[in-house]
From TrEMBL:
<keyword id="KW-0472">Membrane</keyword>
<dbReference type="InterPro" id="IPR003439">
    <property type="entry name" value="ABC_transporter-like_ATP-bd"/>
</dbReference>
<protein>
    <submittedName>
        <fullName>ATP-binding cassette subfamily C protein CydC</fullName>
    </submittedName>
</protein>
<feature type="coiled-coil region">
    <location>
        <begin position="212"/>
        <end position="239"/>
    </location>
</feature>
<keyword id="KW-0547">Nucleotide-binding</keyword>
<feature type="transmembrane region" description="Helical">
    <location>
        <begin position="52"/>
        <end position="72"/>
    </location>
</feature>
<feature type="transmembrane region" description="Helical">
    <location>
        <begin position="241"/>
        <end position="264"/>
    </location>
</feature>
<dbReference type="InterPro" id="IPR011527">
    <property type="entry name" value="ABC1_TM_dom"/>
</dbReference>
<dbReference type="InterPro" id="IPR014223">
    <property type="entry name" value="ABC_CydC/D"/>
</dbReference>
<feature type="transmembrane region" description="Helical">
    <location>
        <begin position="133"/>
        <end position="154"/>
    </location>
</feature>
<dbReference type="Pfam" id="PF00664">
    <property type="entry name" value="ABC_membrane"/>
</dbReference>
<keyword id="KW-1133">Transmembrane helix</keyword>
<feature type="transmembrane region" description="Helical">
    <location>
        <begin position="18"/>
        <end position="40"/>
    </location>
</feature>
<dbReference type="InterPro" id="IPR017871">
    <property type="entry name" value="ABC_transporter-like_CS"/>
</dbReference>
<dbReference type="InterPro" id="IPR036640">
    <property type="entry name" value="ABC1_TM_sf"/>
</dbReference>
<dbReference type="InterPro" id="IPR027417">
    <property type="entry name" value="P-loop_NTPase"/>
</dbReference>
<keyword id="KW-0067">ATP-binding</keyword>
Amino acid sequence: MKALTPFIKLIFAEKRDLFLSILAGFIAGITAVGLFSASGYLISHAALTPPIATLMVIVAIVKLLGITSAVSRFGERYYSHRATFTMLSNIRLRVYEKLEPVSNRILNRYTSGDILSRIVGDVDALQNVLLRVVYPPIVMLSVFLATIAFTTLFSIGTAVLIILGLTLSLLVIPALFFLSQRRVNDQIRETRGELSSMFAEYVYGFRELTIHQARQQREQQVRNTIKQYEQQKQKSQSVQMWSDATIGLLSFLVSVTVLFYAGFQVAEGNLAGILLALLLMITLTVFEQITPMATLPYHLQESAHAAKRIESLEEENNRVEPDVDVQFNEALGIQFQDVTLQFADQLRPAIQRVNIQIPSGSKTAIIGASGSGKTTIANVLLKALPYDQGTVKIDGHELSTISEDTLWKNTNVSLQSNHFFVGTVRDNLLVTEETTDDITLQKALHAAELPHLKLDSRVEEKGQNLSGGEKQRLAIARLLLREAPLWVLDEPTTSLDALTEERMLRLLLERAKDATVILISHRLTGLDQMDQIIVVDHGQIIESGTYDELIQKDGYFKQMKALEEQLFMNE
Ligand SMILES: Nc1ncnc2c1ncn2[C@@H]1O[C@H](COP(=O)(O)OP(=O)(O)OP(=O)(O)O)[C@@H](O)[C@H]1O
């Protein structure tokens, strides 16, 4: 319930619509009760053949109540839905604003299918907070109180019977059915999340699954999960049906009891016979109004759960960003001191007691076997991963005192896999904020050895119409368009042949000559151009020094170099 508080606050921000929908709901409810009880009274009174004028007055009252009830019901729907749509758009904005700055961290922790189901499905589920959780009890309670007060004017016994019936129908029966529905609802939610992730995986991996002929197997898994989901939904709906039927039966029993009780009172001379139909109609109509209350516990649980899931995404945002931001120099010095990071599901730390000194303006290569922890070091530096122990400083400032925005503004980054947007080559070069003219863009393309690409050439989804090497060179052209005091290059040239790789590295280092450069690589090409080489193995730094120092040392680097040369000669 606590998780719902911020969303309930958003509902109460729509004070006017909320008030109008409650008012219209109350008028619609009370006039419906009035309409049927007046009809009952009219029928009974007509049997006594009163003067026509009396009947006309009652008929006019019935008509007026009928029209008022219909108009108020429309008003209730109109204002409550308007408040809901405004609230939903405010929730969507709120969620987006909170998630956007932490998207990097979230993508590391949740699958994209899960994130999608939270920001779409769970946000949509919150529309029921107002429509089915907040205002129905307020409207129902006020209608019941007014009806019961009205009934006590004629028969206190009938009022007591209605109160008992309502307590059973509104509290006891829904609570009992809710308890038996709870487990299956938990299962439904779990299966829905699983299905969403599974489906995203299927769509993303469609090509690989087809090539490896594993598509049918996956499809079957998705189908099985859909079937399981449908069965669980059916089970939940059947519990709901039984709950509705039991409430219907109870309302019928209460109405029959009222009829017998009031009939007995008439026979005893304690109640005017003309009121019998009125009391029966009041009972029947008031029970008709409780239908939305039967599903309230279900919607309350669903909304609270949705709110919790959204909140858990937003919790990432609670990591406080510094108020006062730092100012950086032309090139940035970097220091890692005893930095350790262990992923939750891993047996050993991805990086352990890592100590690195990178002087400002220097060029450092971090090398090591696959999985040794190179990218993790870069991610820590880019604040994409929180570390467990140690200190990281950039330009003398602790990483925690630097906002992500400032950090990324001052960094030119090439990730292992770069994203390419559907559009033109120009669109893909202009992803930076800086506005650049066509001549500069063309120069960047030429420098990245892509003279055959025109700025208006089409780039398909994920750059599918470009070769692996062309994609990397397009990413390099992007880098060339941006100035920054720190360059972090994670394997920027792995898809290139050795000679092109050498030229590209030279080009990048030339462009970043005044900046601090960190190059992550598991190949050793071009490392003689670096000021410092750090060798990582199993998350620990095992060697570091200049190219010449490491070659002279008979260590890991020298062995790797010898092995690479041998492979190169064999090719
Ligand atoms: N998000 C993650 N969750 C759990 N473990 C992870 C995660 N990212 C990386 N790891 C683990 O941390 C270790 C270091 O990974 P890292 O990506 O830093 O290696 P790397 O040296 O960059 O490898 P490569 O050269 O193959 O890119 C690996 O054992 C990897 O399985």
